[in-house]
Amino acid sequence: MTGFTRLPDLALRTYGGSVVAANDESFAEREALIRPGPAEFRPHTFGAKGQVYDGWETRRRREPGHDWAIVRLGLPGIIRGVVVDTAWFRGNYPPYASVEACAAEGYPSPEELDGWVEIVPKSSLKGDAVHEFGVTDPRRFTHVRLNIFPDGGVARLRVHGRVVADRAFLEGLTVDLAALENGGLVTACSDEFYSSPNNVLAPGLARNQAEGWETARRRDGGNDWLVVAMAGPGRVAVAEIDTTNLVFNAPGWASLKGADADRTPLEDEDAWFPLLPRTRLQPDTRHRFRLDDDRRITHARLDIYPDGGLARLRLLGTLAPWSPP
């Protein structure tokens, strides 16, 4: 992955995204747009509606207009880019698409959404191809609307960006300061050979090894690590290091450090102080550790020794007092 596609997919179903409405889904269901993983295809697989597609497909239009689908982002935030993937749709893809976005408070119905702004203008598409569109709008959005002109099929819609949580709601609560859904993000990592390090911050439990972070086997005597930018400055009371599903490839040990980048640059080695000393881990185990250091941190560094994989990293604590801009 490169550029904005390295950021989390805010619309992903496993992150809580939902396709809440579509004007038409005659041939293939709208929910497929935000499924995890690439679209699959088995030729000559016919159902009552024709060839089965792993995507969203509308009927052939015989009247003016265009088709659309609305996605509620599982992780509201600032959108940096959109991917429209027409995989396997060759003779039935839409020749054009655009994307709109809006921000809504609470839990509105699709009919109550308004204030739509265009974040991707009407653009040409090709069949069986991945189309990446950068987005420059700096506002926080909660919903997107994919418009296709005039009709056809789209396999996947990816909405990459940086999560922006409701800080006023989180203040005073014990929360996971590292969680993607609260605005945490992996900003540096030694190795992501098998899977993205941001997987360890994802909501819920990892169902298999692919839903965690796993590095290549080290042969140089060093160790692997990642750095997490927290949801905001805060104090961490509990660290959870979960090796669930990692049976023969879990790290042997792990340690944790913290830093306050508002006071000392992260490039300065003196910025980092220990939160958890090098501690032995067990395979396929959820480890929980109470931390005694109550210093404020903005970033955490997890070192694993020498290599391996993790299902999840949780850093439970409280955000520092916050004043809205």
Protein architecture, described:
The chain has 325 residues and is an all-beta fold. It folds into 2 domains: 3-163, Sandwich (Jelly Rolls), CATH 2.60.120.260; 167-319, Galactose-binding domain-like (Jelly Rolls, Sandwich). The protein is 1% helix and 42% strand. It is built from 1 helix and 21 strands. The strands form 5 sheets. Strands 12, 13, 15, 16, 17, 18, 19 and 21 form an 8-stranded antiparallel beta sheet that branches. Strands 1, 5, 6, 7, 8, 9 and 11 form a 7-stranded antiparallel beta sheet that branches. Strands 2-3 form a two-stranded antiparallel sheet. Strand 2 and strand 3 (50-51) form a beta hairpin. The longest helix has 4 residues, at 167-170. The radius of gyration is 22 Å and the shape is globular. It is an enzyme of class 3 (hydrolase). One of its GO terms (biological process) is purine nucleobase metabolic process. Keywords: Hydrolase, Purine metabolism. One of its GO terms (molecular function) is allantoicase activity.
SSE diagram, text form:
Layout: E1 18-22, E2 46-47, E3 50-51, E4 56-57, E5 67-85, E6 96-102, E7 117-124, E8 130-134, E9 140-149, E10 153-154, E11 156-163, H1 167-170, E12 175-176, E13 185-189, E14 213-214, E15 224-242, E16 253-259, E17 273-280, E18 286-290, E19 297-305, E20 309-310, E21 312-319
Antiparallel strand pairs: 1-5, 2-3, 4-10, 5-8, 5-9, 5-11, 6-7, 6-9, 12-21, 13-15, 14-20, 15-18, 15-19, 15-21, 16-17, 16-19
